[in-house]
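Subject: Protein record for review, amino acid sequence with backbone structure tokens
Why sent: The fold of this protein is of interest and is recorded here as tokens.
Enclosed: The protein record, placed directly beneath this head.
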Amino acid sequence: FIAITSAVCNSFKVEVLQAEHNFTASSGNTFNLALYTSSATLNKSTTAYSSSNEISNTSGSAYSAKGKALTSVTPTLSTDTACCDFADVSWTSASFTARGCLIYNDSHSTDASVCAIDFGGDKTATSGTFTIQFPAAAASKAIIRIA
């Protein structure tokens, strides 16, 4: 059992240099966030979205396969670090448990992965709202940063 390890995916690092990802708000690619159970294996070696061990909604229709599209905030420079941010994303009327997530490029032909995030434990919503809050686009805390 490997589990989920927070990391920027190695394949993403190479694909950035091949100009395969555009985070520019409104004119860039579509990035999604998919939620996963504690049985998932996500880490720096994850190369693309997979439905294996993706969560399922146990009540209602709050969660759909492939997760939700993220609203990108145009990348910026903080000190000497390039930063990417997204608007917070929520699922309402949610009844599910997630251990982590994968941000991936839904516009890419392979649904190329960007980063895996471990929540540090199972997070559960029961007939409530499940929200992912992204940190500010700053050198010390942005969700995606290139220093």
About this structure: The first helix runs from residue 10 to 17. Helices lie at 10-17. DSSP finds one helix and eight strands in the chain.
